[in-house]
Amino acid sequence: MTRRLTRLSRRTFLADLGRGSAAIAVFGLAACSSSDDERSSDATNPTTAGGVAGPETNQGGDADGVRWTEVSFGFVSAFVLARPDGITVVDTGTSGGVGAIETAIGELGGTWTDVGHVIATHSHGDHVGSLQQVLDAAPNATGYAGTDDLADISIAADLVGLEDGDDVAGFQIVATPGHTPGSICVYDPMSRLLVAGDAVLTSGGDIQGPSAQFSADLDLANASALRLAELQVETLLAGHGDPVVDRTAEKLAALALDLG
Ligand SMILES: [Zn+2]
Hints:
It is built from six helices and 16 strands. It is an alpha/beta fold. The strands form four sheets. A seven-stranded mixed beta sheet has the order 3-4-5-6-7-8-9, covered by helices on one side. The chain has one domain: Metallo-beta-lactamase, Chain A (4-Layer Sandwich), CATH 3.60.15. Helix 5 runs antiparallel to helix 6 (248-259).
């Protein structure tokens, strides 16, 4: 596999937030957020000051057997999913996120040794920025990404390529190509929880189609988003925007009508 993530493709901001505290926010160059996403995330992120803060955990939920916590990086989120038999991390945010992900694992009652699987929904830098560090910290974890995105994720660790219909610890992999060639979603059919990556965006409880600005093939990305309406999702965790837990299937069906 190729070598470590380049450190040239990021910018680091250091901000003194006063009262002796300082926070560092690191933004990947390949960030696939829009200004709308930042606003929606900031609205539920009270400690974000001027858009500059370290990643932090937000209270998650319990979706019938899968407990989850959001790790918010302000404009992008990673998610930690816990089942009785272990922990799965989906996406890792920008670089510098390993501490916040560790906090999320702890809040779910686990430690790094409980993490069996780390899944990247796609290759963009704001989703795989801490992937190597998370895999370094989790001695029992296997790393995964969509097969068609593997070549675009330059880390030292080997990753297992995933295809539509694959199963990772009971989670079903749903291929959603278009945003990137190998974009995938992670779906739990039992709890009807979907970690969507950037297959769709959310804002203020609504679900929108994939980003026109940051999707490699928008027509294909829209076709993939349309397909998510077939899943009967109750909890939708998107990479950009707030979790959607209310009338989610109905909203996905409406989006599918829009996109169709
Ligand atoms: Zn993206």
